[in-house]
Amino acid sequence: MRASIRTAIVLALAIGLIALFLHNVDVRRVGGEIADARPEWLAISLVMMVANLVIRALRWQVLLHPLGPATFGQAFRATAVGFAASSVLPARAGEVIRPYFLARQSRHTGADGLSATGAFATVVLERLLDVVTVLCLLASYVFVFGRDLASANPMLFGLVKWAGASAGAVAVVALIVLFVLAGDPARLGRAMGRLEQRLPATLAGLIARVAERFAAGLSVIRRGEPLLIALAWSFPLWLSNAIGIWAVTMAFRLGVPFTGSFMLIAMLVLGVAVPTPGAVGGFHEAFRIGATLFFGAPEAASVGAAIVLHVFSIAPALMLGTAFVAQEGLNFSGMRRLAEQAEQGQA
What's the pLDDT band for 323 if we cut at 50, 70, 90? Predict the structure, then answer.
C-alpha cells in the first residue's frame, strides 16, 4: 500500500510538472523549432553526454580504489546501469542499483573487497563532489561572468544565490560528518552493535556490519591524493555537461553564452532533485525557467530545447545500461528489488 501511494504521488507530481511545462505552449510551433534545430550542434551535445559517462566512470574508479580493485570497464558498466535505472525508476533508484551492480560484477570476476555498502558510500561522496563543483561554476557566473544579468531578474537571481549558499553550507557540514565517520569504521560498527540491547541480535549485527562497511567506503575522504584526483575529475565532468547544454542552446538559437550554461546547470540540479522517473517535468521546467527568465529566450524554442536536451541526457545511459543489464540476465525492476537487499545478497 505504501509503495502504491508513493507511486501515485510521484506520477501526480510528474504529470503536474509536465502540465506546467506545456501550459500555454504552441505544440506545433515547438515541433517546428525542434525540426529547425542545427544538427551539428546537436551532435556535439550528444557526444558530450557520452563523454560525461566516461568521465564519471573514471572518477568513480578513483574513489573505489581504497576499497579494492575495480576496472574501468566495471565502473563504466555500473555507471551506465545506474543512470539508466534512474531514468526509468523514481526516487533516483539508480544510486542504489549502481553500487550493487558493481559488487555483483566483482563477485563474478572473483575480486575481493568490494561491497555494495562500501561502494554506495563512494556514491554519496560523489554527490558531494558534484555539489562543490556545481557551486564553483555557479559562483564564477554569479560574481564574474553574469553580473550584467543580475538586473534582468534580481529576485530570481537572488533566489539562486541563496540556494547556492544554502547548498554550500549543507555540503560543508556533510563533508565534516563523513570525515568523522571515516576515521574509525570499526568503532562505528561497535557503536551500532550496541543496538542489540533494543533490537534482535541478528538485526543489530546486520546494522553494525552495514554501518562499518559504509564508513570503510568513505576512507578515501581521509586520503588527500585520491580525493584531490576525484575533485580534479569533477571539473571536466561538469564542463562536458556545460558544453552539452550550451550546444543545445546554440542548436535552438537561444542566445545563451557558454558561461550562461553554468547558471542553467544550477537550475537543472534543482529540477532533477524532484524524485520523478528520469527527472521528467522537473528537468524540463527548470531549463525553461532558466532560459526564458535569465536569458530572454523564446518560449517555444526553450521548450523544444528542454525536450531534446532531456532526451540526450538520458538516451546514452539508457541504451548502454539496458544492454548491460540484459547481459546479466536481469531487468531494472529485478535489479531494484535485489539492490534493496544488497547486503543480504552478498551474504
Answer: very high
Tell me the per-residue pLDDT of 131-155, one tens digit each, with 9 for 90 and over. 889 988 888 887 778 766 666 667 7
Whole-prediction pTM:
0.83
- How much of the chain exceeds pLDDT 70, in percent? 75
Cα 71 to chain centroid distance, Å, stands at 21
Q: How confident is the model at residue 283 (pLDDT cuts 50, 70, 90)?
A: very high
What is the C-alpha separation between 343 and 106, in angstroms, rounded?
14
The one-letter amino acid at 322? T
